[in-house]
């Protein structure tokens, strides 16, 4: 198993990963519209050099925003390792704050990040309705049958 920078991994495989898991490389959230295949990030590779985890982020001065995090093999520490790698990298670049946005149905992400020191800081009511104008394929109902409506921002001071 190995962690590699997204820039060191074949772009076509990164694009293929996003299309397979998200339907597109595009992420639409309150902070902007992002092509995740163009962002900084890391891949976590298995012994066959296949992506089993991927994280993307963007730096804005002293703030880092995690845009996406995927772990194909849950409960093996892959997500934790990727988040820690971003925190370590951004801290070395002078960032003092890491933020991210998730949707109200993503209880797994809310638990995951809070266990790692992130705090809920903002709720964006009906933000997903706005995002659907740009990306209509965002489902109406998400995890556990919860309607996807709101975005929740979390942050961690490094």
Give the helices and strands, then pairings.
Blueprint: E1 2-5, H1 11-22, E2 26-29, E3 32-35, E4 40-45, E5 51-60, E6 63-71, H2 78-92, E7 97-103, H3 107-115, E8 119-124, H4 127-134, E9 151-157
Parallel strand pairs: 6-7
Antiparallel strand pairs: 1-4, 2-3, 4-5, 5-6, 7-9, 8-9
Verbal overview:
With 158 residues, the protein is of the alpha+beta class. 28% of the residues lie in helices and 36% in strands. The chain has four helices and nine strands, in the order βαβββββαβαβαβ. It has helices at 11-22, 78-92, 107-115, 127-134, and strands at 2-5, 26-29, 32-35, 40-45, 51-60, 63-71, 97-103, 119-124, 151-157. Strands 1-4-5-6-7-9-8 form a seven-stranded mixed beta sheet, sandwiched between helices. The protein has a two-stranded antiparallel sheet with strand order 2-3. Strand 6 (63-71), helix 2 and strand 7 (97-103) form a beta-alpha-beta unit. The model has no long low-confidence stretch (mean pLDDT 94).
Low-confidence stretches: none
Report the helical percentage.
Answer: 25-40%
So how many helices?
4
Number of β-strand runs: 9
Our measurement of the CA-to-CA distance between the termini, rounded to an integer number of angstroms, reads 27 Å
Radius of gyration, in angstroms, nearest whole number = 15 Å
The order of strands across the largest sheet is: 1-4-5-6-7-9-8
- How does the major sheet shape up? 7 strands, mixed
Basic shape = globular
- The class by helix and strand makeup works out as alpha+beta
Would you list the SSEs in sequence order as H and E? EHEEEEEHEHEHE
Q: Kindly estimate the percentage of residues that lie in beta strands according to DSSP.
A: 35-45%
Give the integer mean of the pLDDT values.
94
